[in-house]
Amino acid sequence: MTAGWLLLAAGDPIEHVIAHKVFAIGPFVFTNHMVMQLVVSAILAIALVLVGRDYPLVPRGFRLTIETMLQAVREGIARPVLKDRTDRYMPFVWTLFLFILTNNLLGMFPLNPVTGLATGEWEIFGTATASLSVTGALAGLVFLVTHVSGMLAEIGHKRHGGQSLPVAAVAGFVLYWYHLVPHVPGIVGVILFPMLFVLELFGTVVKHCVLAIRLFANIMAGHILLAVLVLLIPVVRGVAEAGLAATVIGGCVALSCLELLVAFLQAYIFTFLSCMFIGAAVSPEH
Fold it and tell me: Which helix (H) or strand (E) holds 25?
């Protein structure tokens, strides 16, 4: 028994959030974070198909919850910044929000202990949004959508002006990146343009990197703190153990409630900032 407590006390809290190999198919290695993303994708695909099937005129229960959430995302997050382009981007915005939120929430369930007791494998699942590679991929996707949308908006403006598609495509591409730089009049603007362009381009990359790091850091920190609190119990075994255990359990419950709030808040922030970036790119004055 003592050896078991010492083994638990020696555990590394970081082990709860880093990627672990689950299986491999040829050269492709699947980690617990990748497994969790597949599970989340399957849950969303099945749940949303069932929700949308035979949709009633007056939804109730789970359908009403989903509809209220999606309506709040469209009217409270997307429409204020995307305006008349809102509906065009809602499939992407809704998918982004639901994917992040479901990953955040599912990561709070003790899936690994349950599967570990059943199968002996203790690292099958992992909170995908606690991985920088996952949040970085999401931010990279937002980066691509943002700039491609901006270029397509410029091309659309040129097409409305009567230009042919090849001419509009070239002009739209050039004008989008040209408008990325603040305009400085005169010869000074011509001289400063290359430097300002590099700075603005670097700034867009940094903004999306921060988008990834914010989500990753907030989700990872909560999981690590929970692991640290639990590991306090075996560390001080024999020294007011019962009182410490009760305190730690109470702290874990309170922290889990805070994590629940953070799960929704971080999904909201990531989606809101993504809409802000897209809205700035597609507006003529971006």
Answer: strand 21-25
